[in-house]
Amino acid sequence: MEDKIELRENCSWKSEETKPLVPNQMKWDFILVCDKHKSDREKDAKRKEFLDKLEEKGFIIETQKIEDKKLFYGVHARSEIFRKYQCLLKNSDSGLQNHHTEENVPITTRIRIVNLILRNTKISPEETLQKLIKAKVFEAAFPLHEQEGLRKELKENWAQWRKILKQQPIEDIRSYFGEKVALYFAWLGWYTRILFPAAVLGLLVFLYGIFHFDSSQVSKEICEANTTIMCPLCDQKCPFWQLSDTCTYAKVTHLFDNEGTILFAVLMALWATVFLELWKRKRAEVVSGWELYGWDEDEEELALQLINDPAYNLKFYQHSYIRSTILLLLVLLMITVLIGLAHALVIYRVVATVLFTQSDFEFIRERASTVAVMTGAVLHYITIIVMTKVNRRVALFLCELEKPRTFSERENIFTVKIFTFQFFTYFSSLIYIAFFLGSWLRLRFRKSLANPKDKDEVDMEKGSKDSCKEQWLKNYQLNEVNVFSLFDEFLEMMIQYSFTTIFVAAFPLAPLMAFINNLFEIRLDAIKMVQLQRRIVPRKANDIGIWLQVLEAIGILAVIGNGLVIAITSDFIPMQVYKYTYSPCMLQNRTDINCLTGYINNSLSVFRVQDFEGQMKLPEKLPDFLRSEITECRYRDYRNSDDYNYSAQFWHVFAARLAFLILFEHVALCIKLIAAWYVPDVPQSVKNKHLEKKYENLKGVLRKIDRSTDV
Hints:
Among the domains are: 27-143; 683-711. The protein has 25 helices and eight strands. The protein has helices spanning 41-56, 79-89, 107-120, 129-134, 150-157, 170-177, 179-211, 217-223, 247-256, 259-289, 297-308, 321-357, 362-366, 368-402, 407-437, 455-458, 468-476, 485-502, 510-532, 547-569, 572-582, 584-587, 599-603, 648-678, 684-710, and strands spanning 30-35, 59-66, 70-77, 140-142, 229-230, 241-242, 604-608, 632-636. Strands 2-3-1-4 form a four-stranded antiparallel beta sheet, sandwiched between helices. Strands 5-6 form a two-stranded antiparallel sheet. A hairpin with a 3-residue loop joins strand 2 and strand 3. Helix 10 (259-289) runs antiparallel to helix 20 (547-569), helix 12 (321-357) packs antiparallel against helix 14 (368-402) and helix 20 (547-569) runs antiparallel to helix 24 (648-678). The relative contact order is 0.12.
């Protein structure tokens, strides 16, 4: 049973008397737009009813007809609405604590409150503004950008490419776009700053590989293996090949798979933990300065709902085990589909390689692997594009089934689901490649920039010369902002963070690429928000929300992923087993040679050609003295030459891989826990500041009690 909450104005103060403003002096909080030519009587009636509802709630509406095609409605909220907000909360909103006049209400607060009222005003039990927009009763609803003032300062000092290395004006961003946007840019700036040492370290690991490009004993043996004949890669029509053909690949692999990679992977696990802990401290300092340290999101949500409707029906938290079970099964089903698609892509590459190898066209046959990889990459890209749209629809559907209580709860639920689906969409095939098809991955960053409008459409710096009508039209012509705008920016960064941490052992340059990308990302997002898009609706926040838990989950996956890459994919473990067990240094007690001498020959098993079905082709560049019938070929594995069973060395390597994986992950996780404990989430200065504030408040209450007792 739902309780009804009645809103009563019990503030003892009265608002200051202000002169009524003429329309040209008003700060229009929102603009509603409709298409005059697509209107009809039914739509006109609904539009009039909706506007009448707004006027009943104390809004001032002004109509502007522009270019004989569009009708614009300026919406201005009276000060009583904001007095209710201040009276209900009396807390952290800067500008509302000590001032009660309409002129002193922060514009971000005005827009946030007006937006909620507009979105929750109904002309029937089901017809809200959102549904009226879908029904083409209204075409758009958006807050206005400022013509001068803070927007101009942000454009000059922040949304410029030449400011790429300049510190961001977070306070100005907060004053114009609200706390949620400001925290996004504060987090992105902090993430980029902390990326710098990781980028430098990854570059050093890469340079170490370059300096040892030609000195690797393993690469030398591969390049000199002109007489080592490798077995065909398929059963029919595939030729024998020489091991020396992979000389360049072996050298390039050593750039990323060397001794420094192991240490770098451990340090990146520590880096991910330190980054999160330092961000928690940074976030505490920022929100403390905004007086939002103890801000209660539920209280804020209830206050806004009561301002819109004094008889608002309270929605309680609900939980159903049956519903949760159904949702879990649906999520697992979706993940299974995504993994199945990834496996289908992998199977396609394998089958395509065989088919292209057997092609009648010599050009395709000679480049079968390359063609298979390229076509597979195109299919993978198409899959990502299609499944991104499908994932969003499925996530929204599941959110509706879960019946979240508030918008914030709905956003958190949606975030977890869409990130999970996108994670498997992006990484399922990459995980297969990393653990089964090779240790070297290329890192790719995606960024799409909305097409800018013509200069005349986005240039809003003419100030007072522009009329109200021109300002409304220019705002309307900017790119639309949807409810997922900031969500999409966070999601993009989380995918990048996953690339940067989970596969860092396979690609040490990932932090450097992420660092360079983010330098441009910050300014690109700034230009988009300030110049190319309509004004985003400000939202209040004191943290990045559920994204912090996503980052922590990625940090754990990074430890597991890097451990698996090194243990399963990398040659590091087999080389160490050979070096300390089977090398000449151990068996012959030699110290005059490299202990990895003979590793390649030791890691290749022998296969008898007579066991092949069908005739195999000889390599074209095979020396004459080897062009006679080949009786044996080599392949990468640890098997006996007589019965092809696993040799003892295989089990030694297997045990070493397993032991390393367990040791690496336990050490890395212990380091993460120690780092999390060592770095406090909240600085002592912030704790002491709030402790002192509580102390002064209690002393003030005590003085009031003493005075009342004396009387």
